[in-house]
Amino acid sequence: MKRTVLTAALICATAAGVLSGCGDGEEDKAGAPPSASAAPTTTAVPKAPFEGLTAQQISDRAVTAMKALSSVTIDFDGTDSGQKIRMKAAMTNAGKCVSHIVLGGGNLELIGVGTDTFAKGDTAFWNAQAGASGPAVNALLKGRWMKMPAGSGQDDDFKSFCDLSTFMAGFTESGSGTPVKGAPTVVAGRTTVPISSPDDGGTTTVYVAAEGEPYILKAVHTGSDPGSAVFTDFDKPLNAVAPPASQTVDASALGG
Prior knowledge:
Structural class: alpha+beta
């Protein structure tokens, strides 16, 4: 099956440009705690979120928090090379996933159980994404799941949508532009600090939670291929169950 838009590039378009090169650098301290002998104040002024931190330092914290996740759900809506894409993917760093992707008028479901990935596309999906081989793929699968063992070429094509470790690796890819910190913004009822940077002919903005863990709650990319991703269900357990063997076809039957 030809390599398609189902690669890490889709997600990297929404976040890597802002977070590139982050995660291992030293951070400046946000400020020392007040002395125990300091006189109490009756007119305390709340500190601004991430006060004293630069945009790069906030990005560093976000990268560290996101890469430490055991699981997350990503809800993506955008385009790639003019194709409309809609995806909701719940994935873990142990290779478990339950994902649904709408691409090019077709639908694809993914299930990952750690060592194997299973893909089930409708007729429109395989015809669009498998090119001239589409009809043959549909005839062979007959609505069943394609089983892709770990390390297979087909499995590599879908890994970024089914394995959290692979997905997060895109956050450290090289990018360009200097990140800029914006004014606090509320996302899903939580205060965030937006960090923006020029990226791939547009601008990428990630919204970092200002309270609790500095997770990225949302990422928005503008430009020729705009898109947005919403992140939820941080570290929530995921129950992924492999389809029954009678409903699967090994990817090797497709001839690679």
